[in-house]
């Protein structure tokens, strides 16, 4: 499960009107899947029935409800799927695609040169080795993977989350931890190279003061950000991108999941038939890792 599941359920009413896709209800929610191929179209060469695969299906092309992942059977373009990491079970593989592709496309490689709907220029990752990276929302679906990718690339990581998440994010490799319920990170941190704000929205601008000149702020949810002038004054780059389905990147990421470089944490799992309870859990927030729907145990 991912935040767009509840945004779609709600007709994207949380987005500004100009960003709201037109949704024809009823819809089947969901984008991320892991399962076994039942059949392939005649022109598909890379995959065959019986292959275990995972995917983020039709995102953002199908964000108005054409991905339909909360189901026993799903169709997906072959270009969006990859072989499931063999050492990872379906629940963990299904939990990976959107969050992990988001972390990868922000930090490592955007993976395409299509126009960026969020800004006039392409999103550019920045060097991580030897740099200090602050990750806000470090315990969440995207955040817990950003922490791991930044560590893998040799960064020093300051994780920001609620206090109950400290052991979890330190276990993922975070070097320092700030409990935002006790301390405002922007009041105590200065001179970092990169802030990855996995909460985002209108409050992202407060992180500008934590960055050194030449640093970068990546708001994962950039809508509502209004700090462009302050960023220019401080010599800070602000950049975002919209995650896109990408089977080739998932194939690369299979390797990192298989060898344990990147671990997917599951907060809780629910049977598909009780997706409602999973959405109620999501609404309570403070998710540590991912929520997963299981079709069959
Ligand atoms: N650009 C894109 O294409 C893209 C792709 C994927 C996701 N997103 C967006 O990125 C955001 C995060 O997605 P997600 O899947 O990671 O969501 P998530 O799993 O719900 O994670 C959000 C995390 O933020 C933490 N948090 C909440 N309030 C906070 C605060 N004030 N300060 C610091 N941490 C706080 C929560 O736990 P604690 O409060 O316990 O720390 C939670 O772990 C969503 O808005 C989503 O729409 C954008």
UniProtKB/TrEMBL annotation:
Q: By its UniProt entry, which InterPro entries does this protein fall under? A: ADH-like_N (IPR013154), Chloroplast_QOR (IPR052733), ER (IPR020843), GroES-like_sf (IPR011032), NAD(P)-bd_dom_sf (IPR036291)
* SMART domains with a match to the protein in the record: PKS_ER
Task: Please give the CDD domains that the UniProt record associates with this protein.
Answer: MDR_like_2 (cd05289)
- Tell me the ranges covered by the Enoyl reductase (ER) domain, including all copies: 1-293
* The name this protein goes by in its record: NADPH:quinone reductase-like Zn-dependent oxidoreductase
- What organism is the protein native to? Roseateles terrae
């Amino acid at each position: 499960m991912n935040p767009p599941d509840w945004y779609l359920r709600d007709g994207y009413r949380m987005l500004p009107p100009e960003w709201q896709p037109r949704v024809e209800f009823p819809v089947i929610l969901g984008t991320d899947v892991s399962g076994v191929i039942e059949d392939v179209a005649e022109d598909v060469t890379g995959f065959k029935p019986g292959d275990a695969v995972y995917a983020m299906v039709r995102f953002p092309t199908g964000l108005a409800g054409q991905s339909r992942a909360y189901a026993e059977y799903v169709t997906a373009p072959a270009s969006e799927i990859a072989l499931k990491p063999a050492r990872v079970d379906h629940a963990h593989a299904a939990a990976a695609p959107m969050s992990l592709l988001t972390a990868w496309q922000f930090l490592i490689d955007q993976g395409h040169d299509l126009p960026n709907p969020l800004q006039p220029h392409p999103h550019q990752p920045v060097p991580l080795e030897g740099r200090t990276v602050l990750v806000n929302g470090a315990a969440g679906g995207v955040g817990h993977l950003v922490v791991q990718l930044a560590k893998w690339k040799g960064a020093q990581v300051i994780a920001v989350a609620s206090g109950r998440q400290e052991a979890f994010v330190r276990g993922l490799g975070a070097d320092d931890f700030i409990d935002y319920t006790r301390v405002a990170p922007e009041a105590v941190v200065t001179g970092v190279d990169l802030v990855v704000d996995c909460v985002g929205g209108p409050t992202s601008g407060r992180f500008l003061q934590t960055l050194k000149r030449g640093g970068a702020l990546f708001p994962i949810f950039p809508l509502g950000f209004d700090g462009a002038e302050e960023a220019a004054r401080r010599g800070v780059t602000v950049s975002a991108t919209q995650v896109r389905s990408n089977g080739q990147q998932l194939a690369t990421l299979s390797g990192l999941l298989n060898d344990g470089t990147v671990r997917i944490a599951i907060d809780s799992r629910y049977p598909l038939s009780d997706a409602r309870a999973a959405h109620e859990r999501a609404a309570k927030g403070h998710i540590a890792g991912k929520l997963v729907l299981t079709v069959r145990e």
